[in-house]
Amino acid sequence: MNYYLRRLTFYVVTLWAAVSLNFLLPRLMPGDPRTIFMDKIMRRGGEITPAMRRSIDTIFGADDSSMLDQYVEYWGNIFRGDLGVSSSMFPAKVTDLIGSALPWTLGLVGLTTIISFIMGVAIGAFAGWKRGSAADALIPAMTLLQSLPYFWLALIFVAVFSVSLGWFPIIGGYSLREFYAGPELSWGFISSVIYHGILPAITIIVASVGGYVLSMRNMMVSVMSEDYVTTAEAKGLRKSRIFFWYAGRNAVLPSLAGFGITLGFVVAGSIVMEQVFSYPGIGKLLITAVQDKDFALMQGVFLVITVTVLLANFIMDLVYGFVDPRTRSNV
Fold first, then answer.
1. Within the chain, how many helices (H) and strands (E) appear?
2. pTM exceeds 0.85
3. pLDDT band at 73 (very low <50, low <70, confident <90, very high)
C-alpha cells in the first residue's frame, strides 16, 4: 500500500507543477490573446469600438487582476471544464476543439501504438528465443526501420502509395466530398475513415515496431541466461511454459515500462504524421495553435497532454507493481 500511496503523491505533485507551469508560460511570453485577436480584426479592415473592446476583455479575460487571483481563477476554470475561447477559431471553445480532435488521435495513434507493441514484443520474444537461428535475420531489418526518420518515411509513403500509385488518399481523415456536412454515424463514413487511416497507421507501425523488437529480443537473450531459466529447463518443464512464464514474463518488463510512456503520449498524437497527412487530430490542432499564436488553445492542448501522460504512467506503475512484486518492496 505504501508503494501506491507514494506513486499517487508523486503524480499529484507533478500534476500541480505541470499545470502551474502551463499557467505561467503564456503570461511570461510577449503579447496576449486579446491583442492578437484585435490585431487580426484590424488587419482585415475592421474597427475596434469601446463596446467591442469590453466584449473582447470579457471573453478572453482581463489582466487587471493580480497574478495570484488569475492563478486561482485558472484552477477554478479547469475544475469547471472551461479552458477558454480560441482566438484563431473564434468563437469556438477550446474544449470543443479538443473534443472534436481527440477521438481521431485516440482511434488512430492509440490503436496503432497497441498493435506496434504487441507485434514488436511477439517478434522480439521469438527472435530472442530462437537466437542464432534464421529468426535473427529480422534484426538488421528492424534496426534499419528504427533508424529511419519518421517524417521521411511518411513523405515516402505519401509519394509512392498516394501520389504515384493512387491507392490511398493524400490528406484528411475522411472524404470531404462525400461527407461535406461533417462526421456521421453510418457505414459509409466509417469505411471512409478506415480507408483514410490505413496509410497513416502503416506509417506509425513501421516506424515504431522496430524499437520494441530490438528491446524485447535483447532482454529475452539476457533472461534466457539466468539461473531460474536454466533450472526450469533442467526440471524438464514444457518449452511453452518456460517461454511464457519464465523467460517472456520477465523479459517484457522493460518493454512494458516503455509502452506506458509511449501510451501516455498517444493523446499528443503523432504530430509529424498528422501534419503530413493533414489528419484532424490533436497534433495538427497543436501546430495550428502555435502558428496562430493561440495561447488559450495551446494551454488547453498542453493540459490534456500532460494529464494523459501522467495518468497513463500512473496506471502503468500500478500494473508494473502488480506484475513485478520486487518494485513494491524496493520503493
1. 16, 0
2. no
3. confident
